[in-house]
Specification:
Blueprint: H1 2-8, H2 14-36, H3 44-72, H4 81-97, H5 99-116
Helix pairs in contact: 1-5, 2-3, 3-4, 3-5
Length: about 120
């Protein structure tokens, strides 16, 4: 069981995971702040979902970036920077918000990828 967890959850590089975790934490902080300002206030479920989404966000983002990389290839597009930032922010938010559904695909791929590599 430990091997399965190491091959899936440990499949991303630490620098990539830390970078994506930072952005996921920003979304969680914003989401929790906005929910705390709502008339009904903050509840445990909101905090729990935010924490789970933040921890799974790097794997969700990995799936998104892999899919876009596969579709786009090595093409380069020149677009307005503000438009690109808006699109990037939107895709990051969607990946964070749907991380609980998207991340299992990334975890399965990472497990499959690392299980096929010869062990030392």
């Amino acid at each position: 069981m430990r091997n399965v967890l190491a091959m899936s959850f440990g499949g991303l590089t630490p620098s990539y995971y830390a970078r994506q975790l930072f952005f996921g934490a920003l979304f969680a902080a914003f989401f929790i702040y906005m929910k705390s300002r709502a008339p009904l206030g903050l509840d445990f479920a909101t905090v729990a979902i935010s924490v789970v989404s933040t921890l799974l966000y790097p794997y969700s983002r990995f799936v998104y970036e892999s899919a876009v990389g596969f579709i786009m290839g090595r093409n380069v597009f020149f677009v307005n920077a503000l438009f690109m930032l808006a699109v990037k922010f939107f895709t990051m938010f969607v990946c964070w918000f749907l991380a609980i559904f998207i991340a299992p695909l990334g975890l399965l791929y990472l497990y499959w990828h690392h299980s096929r590599q010869p062990s030392n």
